[in-house]
Description:
525 residues, alpha+beta, Beta-Lactamase, Heat Shock Protein 90, 3 domains, five-stranded antiparallel beta sheet, five-stranded mixed beta sheet, 50% helix, phosphoprotein, EC 2.7.13.3
Amino acid sequence: MRLRQWSVARQMLALQIIVVTVTVAAGSAMGFFQARDLVAADATAVTRAVAVSVAGSPSVLAALADPDPSAALQPYAERVRAETKVDFITIMSPDGIRYTHPRPAEIGRRYLGTIAPAREGRTVSETYTGTLGPSIRTVTPVRDAEGRVRALVSAGITVEKISDRLREQVGAAGIAALLGLAAGTAGTYLAGRRLRRHTHGLGPTELGRMYDYHEAILHAVREGLLLVDSRGALTLCNDGARELLALPPDAEGRQVTALGLPPSLTEQLASGGDRTDEIHLTGDRVLLVSVAAVRAGARSLGTVVTLRDHTELQAVTGQLDAERGFAEALRSAAHESANRLHTVITLVELGRPEQAVAFATEELRAAQELTDRVVAAVREPVLAALLLGKSAQAGERGVELSISQESELDDVGLDAHDLVAILGNLIDNAVEAAMSGTPPARVTVHLGASEGSCLIRVADSGRGLHPAAVTEAYQRGWTTKGSGRGLGLSLVAQAVRRLGGTIEVTGDPGAVFTVRLPLPERSTS
Length: 525
């Protein structure tokens, strides 16, 4: 239970130390057995070479012809043994009676070991326990000119000497193994410290719980959430962000500049700076975007981006602005009516009733003429109310807003909110442009429907737009008034795209915005 409560870093450290220890131990064991086999093979090769060399020496064959072969062979064998550093060289008769031995007392006694293969003319190697203890030895025949076996030669190295050599190699290998274990443990400890820093000392249970919470939150919140690293790559996006930005399935891991987002939004995501509640437009949404930079000391880790959908709120705000405009128009009309009524009353009091009647009739005729013209030309009630309100607003600002004589528009069946957004923003921008132009300031509105499309045209008497600024005019933040948010034309372009229409700008001087919207097919049943 205590082991489960350990942090991930501590568990990984313990596991890696065990792995390193087992690996080093297994490697050392394999090295030991390989070294033992190599030393044994080397000893066998040495004894074979020495035995064959002595057996082929002419002096050995010549000494065998003497009545006392040991007198000549014993010094020779000891000299060769000292030079080759083997433990013994025994020259014996074919029956195994020794002529030489490192211990002179053993001369004349029978050789201990296998000699039958050598008597038959073959060379044989084996490990056998003789007078000097266990040894690796090789026995080979001594032949005369006719090929007969005249004697046998045995050369050997004791196992004790082989073990001494093996211990030297194992000692060096053990030191290397200890160094490797120490290096592995140190590396494991450093890796554990790094892992502990990244996991904040949490255990597997806590990390698993945090991951579950992380996934639940990401999929539950409606707001969009993006994580962008310091190189400008998208590392995480939740379901809300995928829906709001229409991101592809493979968006994570790609650069934000390659996601096909609007230029203003792409620039903000890639900037890495802090931004709060900036409005950005996508194809069919109005988004409120906030960006917060994440840092670890002086090192930038990237940015956290939150997205909130303000499309419906923006539509309601636009409608509220229109209602506020209507209220202001009514207030202005009430104020003007009060002034006119005072004028009429004063004329009556002054004894000029004819002038009072003429004044009241003329004012009523002008107001009724505008209302009749709008109502007769535009039978879409929302647009008719909008035009009356905008006309009063424009009049207050010294701009004459008129409806073209050719205007005629029935209920076209298009979304009223989008129509209000398009016409209202176009008129507001036209009024602003007309006020900055040469007097008299005029705005002309034409509405119509033909060939399956709704036509909205708004012209002003302002300075117009430079051709190079036409495309830029539909981007968020563009304005002719210096500083400003410049959202109106962006909302117009968005609503036009949403309805599947087109918008173009012409005119010189002044600007003429022409919008064409396809009409929905009406049922004939």
